[in-house]
Amino acid sequence: MPIVANPGHVDAALERGLDGRGVSREDALSFMRDAPLGALLHTAAAVRDRFKGRSVSYSRKVFIPLTHLCRDYCGYCTFRADPQVGVRPYMTPDEVLAVAEAGRRAGCKEALFSLGDQPERIFPEAKEFLQTLGFDTTLEYLAAMSELVLTKTGLLPHSNPGLMGEKDLRRLRETNVSVGLMLESASPRLGRPGEAHWKAPDKVPALRLRTIETAGQLSMAFTTGILIGIGETAEERVDALLAIGAAYRKHGHIQEVIVQPFRAKPDIRMALAPEPSNEDLLRTIAVARLILGGEMNLQSPPNLLSQDYPDLLKAGINDWGGISPVTKDFINPEAVWPQISSLAERTAKAGFVLRERLAIYPEFMPGPEFTPAPESSSRPDFIHERLRPYVRKLQGGDGYARGESDPC
Question: Is 224 in a helix, a strand, or coil?
Answer without folding.
Answer: strand
